[in-house]
Amino acid sequence: MPFRFGAHSSARLERTPDKGEVDGSNPSGPTVTNELELLDWKRRAFELYAAVRAQPDGARAWSIWREQRDDLFAHHPQSPIPENERAGFTGLEYFDYDPDLRVIADVRAAETEHFEIPTSGDDTMGFTRVGLAAFELAGQYLSLEMYWLDGYGGGLFVPFADATSGDETYGAGRYLLDTIKGSDLGSEGDDRLILDFNFTYNPSCSYDPRWVCPLAPPANRLEVRVRAGEKHTEKPT
Hints:
Number of domains: 1
Number of strands: 7
Helix content: 10-25%
Distance between the termini: 50 Å
Number of helices: 3
Shape: globular
Low-confidence stretches: 1-12, 17-29
Strand content: 15-25%
């Protein structure tokens, strides 16, 4: 049965740290300045992914994505890189671009079910499973559950972990799609999604534990090694 996106009901997917909690300047909560900075970050992310979708050359699109992400991470006030580390930031690490890791997934219906997905903090985040993205990768037929973020507006969220997690990549998994924050690689028709693993990236909490991020649930843990997208290097303790 072909899948059709329905009207689901977002809260912010990754909760930003309240800067007042860090520097003591605003103990009562977020400031208007913080929220406008976040708005600007999201606006730039949406513009970046629009540019990626418009670029027919996949390798060129990936280069644009990398360059602009590095600039945001180095200079934007909402960067997840801790402020005291930004001066020494030289860019994010990635696997080499691999065109074979761009796939077109068939989106299939799945039983709608609500989940409270664990986060990097103490709370959970509410999502509803709305479908399955089925595809072939490295000679294997795989699928990832697709989640809709509960709350006003909603948004499609596809996190995953794989056999590189905890080794070459972030142990709690990476994000492939997160449309509430702009990361949307497009579709082909009503029931096929573009999944390009070269564009997978780490959640903000991988850079700074003050951020609270949903983690990849067990259903989206792949047994294959996905050597594409952003790498992760543990900071020395």
